[in-house]
Amino acid sequence: NRIGRSPADAEQIELRELLLDVIEVSAPPEGFRIDVPAALPAITSARSPLRQIFLNLVGNAVKHHDKDRGHIRITWEDAGPLIAFSVTDDGPGIAPEHHEDIFTLFQTIKRRDEVEGSGMGLSIVKKILYHHGGTIRVASEEGKGTTFTFTWPKTAAPIQRLGA
Question: What's the whole-model pTM score?
Answer without folding.
Answer: 0.84
